[in-house]
Structures are given as structure tokens and as C-alpha cells.
Design a protein that fits this description.
Structural class: alpha/beta
Shape: globular
Largest sheet: 6 strands, parallel
Helix content: 40-55%
CATH class: Alpha Beta
CATH topology: Rossmann fold
Radius of gyration: 18 Å
Length: 277
Amino acid sequence: MFVHGFNTRFETALFSFAQIFHDSGAQAAPILFSWPSRGGVFNYVYDRESAAFSRDALEKLLRRLAASPDVREITVLAHSMGAWLTMESLRQMAIRDGRLPGKVQNVILASPDLDVDVFRAQFRSFGEKRPSIVVFLSRQDRALQLSRGIGGNVERLGAIDPSEQPWIGEKGVEVVDLSDTAGADPLRHSKFAQNPDVVRFLGEELINGASRAPPTGFGERMGELSTGVAQGVGGVAGIAVNAPIAIVDPDFRRAYADRLQQFREAVNSAVASGPDR
């Protein structure tokens, strides 16, 4: 299940999830939970309230999936503000029932726009039998830096320095630090969707069940993909994610054309470098 973030309308969320799901190679049934974002960069408060309004709906969907005999396990991938919505819905379930459904096995929080202390409280409310939680973060996430300013200068989970937050190593929480990984997004808020190794990891390692936590050294290997062909290929998902916006927004279309040109140049450079690269 994919839960989108701030400034993301239904059609953009659908396109983004289809691209991520295809590239990940996940052997699962894809489900998109779309909450009513207004789809504007100046509508942060509106989107926040819409996310809060959607908590019961997401909880209801999770309960229906958990109750279905056709569902073996549930993995939730939540991006940005969608991470707050996901954690709140799971918290509600845990408080009502005293536990979370056993079928909810993986919760992946990508660039979570989530107050660190709020996450801590949500996490503890899950009890001892928690799902595996993976957090993709980047200390250079500019969108979360802005959110931090709006939120009273409180750290956002998706932009923390893990070394300064020792509690993050509590059982059930794994961190993948993408701070040193290149991304085509100027806000550096969607690296998880732009890096091919990250997208494959989502499908092969988590969703397909090869492991329940990032493999040793995975975070370090992310840094190796900041240049060369990996950067070029990683731009594909970012370009695809933003294509619907480029169609309708003339200002974005001009920037989008520049990104396409950068992608072409990266691919041409990689090809010209020969097989050794």
C-alpha cells in the first residue's frame, strides 16, 4: 500500500505509485490510499488537516485488508506527510485493540514529514509486537527544512542525524541514510523514488520478503550511486513522477524540460565512458 504525501493530487499519486511499483519488481497486489491533498505548495495547513481527516478511512482500509483471508501480509510505504497519517492510523488501531494486526509486517517511511517526538510516542503505542519500521531520511531534505520552520523549528524525522538520536536504534526501527545520495529533485525530498537501488531494495528486500531489515552496509552503498550511470538512471523515476504536473503547469514544464536534458546528458556520458564504468 502506498500513502502519498503533501502537494500530491490523486492522478499524480497514481502515476508515481505505478512507476515505483513497476521499477521495484514487487510481487504483491498494489493498493493506493489517496487522501484529499489540494495539490498546491501554499496549502500546507489544508493538506495537514486533510491528512488528519483521513485517519479513520485509512484505519478502516487496513482493518479490511487484515481481515481478508486472501491477504497474507501488509507492507505500507508512506511518503512525507503520508507518514504522519500512516503512523496516526496505526496508533489508533493499537489503542483500540491493544495491538496491531499481525499481518501489518512492514512500515516504510520515506522522507517522513513527522515531528520526531510525535513519532516516538506513536512508535511506543504499538506495544511489543510491532511491525518492522524502516525510515529513509536525508539531512539535506529542503522540503523538510521548510516544514521544520513552519512547525516551530521542531526536527522532522526524515531529516535527522541518526547519530544524534540514539533512541532511533530501538528494536523494530531501521534507518537508511540517503544524505550522500544524488537525486534529481531540487528539494531532495523524493530520493527514495529516484535511486534505482533504493527502489529495487523496496521490492526485493522488503516487499518480496527477502529480508525484514536493510542489509548490512546498505546505507553506505547508497553513497556509491551519487555519480555516473546510477545518477542518470535514477532520474527516470523522478522524471516520471513529475510528468503529470509538467503537462498542466507551464512554469513547471520549463524546469521539466531542463531535467530531461540533464538526464539525456547523463546517459550519453555513461555510454561514452565505455563498459569499464
